[in-house]
Write a structure and sequence with these properties.
By secondary structure, the protein is of the alpha+beta class. It has one domain: Nuclear Transport Factor 2, Chain: A, CATH 3.10.450. It is built from five helices and six strands; from the N terminus they run ααααββαββββ. It has a six-stranded mixed sheet with strand order 2-1-6-5-4-3. The longest helix has 23 residues.
Length: about 180
């Protein structure tokens, strides 16, 4: 439960900061974190399912764009202030532009991504914030034509900005084969 409260506080801070940067007016009355739960609990199941499906669709569209080496389409739903943790770099990556440049450089790699699948997706909604966690499984092919499975544990945080869900943070970790 303590972890849940910390996560909710983080979501509240990210949501508030993102709205402030976007110039969206905030209510002057502070709302306790639990108020978001009550509001979301009354969201009709069909509306909640539609948002969950949209978040998953956004990720799969990004993967399809990456497989086609279409950098512009790959970052369509990535916020300019995007941050990321991943196993390839020892520090947090800051900004959509940096991650786009790294992705473009990776597109020049002689290998390619053949398949990408999302296993066990879970979308948690808190007002205008959606947290997607899932297991990633895929297949890459190296320059010699050898295929290799890829596994990862992933979390993505999206914030609704205007009419679009924008990715503001990602955390991607290797998921090694059990021994």
């Amino acid at each position: 439960m303590r972890t849940h409260r910390i996560l909710l506080a983080l979501v509240t801070v990210v949501s508030t900061a993102t709205l402030a940067r976007a110039g969206v007016a905030q209510s002057t009355g502070a709302q306790p974190p639990a108020a978001g739960f009550a509001r979301d609990a009354v969201m009709p199941a069909s509306a909640r399912k539609a948002v969950e499906d949209e978040i998953v669709r956004i990720v799969k569209a990004q993967w399809a764009a990456e497989m086609q080496h279409d950098a512009a389409a790959a970052v369509k739903n990535v916020a300019p202030e995007y941050t990321e943790f991943n196993g390839d770099f020892a520090t947090r990556l800051e900004g959509r532009d940096l991650t786009a440049r790294l992705s473009a450089a990776d597109f020049k790699n002689s290998g390619k991504l053949l398949a990408a699948e999302m296993i066990n997706p879970k979308v948690q909604l808190y007002g205008n914030v959606a947290i997607l966690s899932y297991n990633y499984v895929g297949v890459t092919q190296d320059k010699d034509g050898k295929n290799e499975p890829t596994r990862a544990k992933s979390t993505r945080v999206y914030v609704k900005q205007g009419n679009d869900w924008m990715l503001v943070h990602g955390n991607f970790a290797a998921d090694p084969q059990p021994k």
